Amino acid sequence: MNIHFYKYQGTGNDFVIVDNRGGEYSSLTTEQIAHLCDRRFGIGADGLMMLEMQPEYDFKMKYYNADGREGSMCGNGGRCLTAFARHMGISKPMLRFIAVDGPHEARLRENGWVDLKMQDVHQVEAGNLYFYLNTGSPHFVKFVTDVQEVDVYEEGRSIRYNDRFAAEGTNVNFVQEVDNGIFVRTYERGVEDETFSCGTGVTAAALTAAPAEPGDYNIPVETLGGHLEVHFTRTGERSYSDIWLCGPATLVFEGNIKI
Fold first, then answer.
1. Residues carrying an active site annotation
2. Does CATH number 3.10.310.10 belong to domain 2-118+249-258?
3. What per-residue string of b and e applies to 125-145 under the rule 16 or more CB within 10 Å gives b?
4. Which residues bind substrate (predicted)?
5. What is the pLDDT of residues 96-117, one digit of tens each?
6. Closest Cα to residue 76, out of 186, 1, 164?
7. Spatial contact of 102 and 134, defined as CB atoms under 8 Å apart
8. 200 annotated as ligand-binding
9. Residues 10-62 pLDDT 10s
10. Residue 82, annotated as binding a ligand
């Protein structure tokens, strides 16, 4: 099979993207997708996305983790796929698409940033020194004093594969409060390693970092791959709405590969 692909990145979270509106790539197997995402023997990416058709929406997002299995919602992936949709001629000011966790809206700014509306969150588990919530994907959030000193791979893996999470898996975020916002590092399930950025993880971290009082918030977020912002309204003790993940989404290159 010959595949024409595009490589996009959003704050270092990188993706192989294909235009599957004609269905020509629907037969890709788990092994083939994993091969395409392999950083030594393939193109190299944190995941693969397909742009597909969906009635009543501008497009459908289909996302696969780097291990080749279909994944849960990917925030940076949704922003990159929105930029790709614009590149492919879907040029409305506000785009509506459907993903595995439901409908989303997205808008493109003139500076190259893409703002993605996330699902509302109405349940947050607050434990001893951690939070656990679902922002389209499940996230364990732990606040630390020095995020640069954390062994994200070892500590994240130990949580992701502990007795509670081993079967379904969870993403693990280590968060440090800084002068202007937060710094987040994430261990991602499916990639099974630290990534440069994780959109749903950044969103989870920002929600749990907000002041306890209801109100509108804008949380600046630093990741290894760059700067993001999360805008939202806190409506209750553990309830959040109108959540927007905002940041850059960039075409890196396009090419052809035969598998």
1. 74, 198
2. yes
3. eeeeeebbbbbbbbbbbbbbe
4. 13, 65, 75-76, 171, 188-189, 199-200
5. 999 999 999 999 998 999 999 9
6. 186
7. no
8. yes
9. 999 999 999 999 999 999 999 999 999 999 999 999 999 999 999 999 999 99
10. no
Q: How many residues does the chain have?
A: 259
Residue 74 has pLDDT above 90, yes or no: yes
Per-residue tokens: 93: 């000011």
Please tell me the CATH superfamily of domain 124-241, with its number: Diaminopimelate Epimerase; Chain A, domain 1 (3.10.310.10)
39 marked ligand binding residue: no
SS3 195: strand
CA distance 80 to 86: 10
Helix (H) or strand (E) holding 252: strand 250-258
State pLDDT tens for residues 186-217.
999 999 999 999 999 999 999 999 999 999 99
The answer to whether the annotation marks 75 as part of a ligand binding site is: yes
Q: Where are the domains of the chain?
A: 2-118+249-258, 124-241
pTM of the full predicted structure? 0.96
Is 218 one of the annotated binding-site residues? no
pLDDT of residue 91: 87
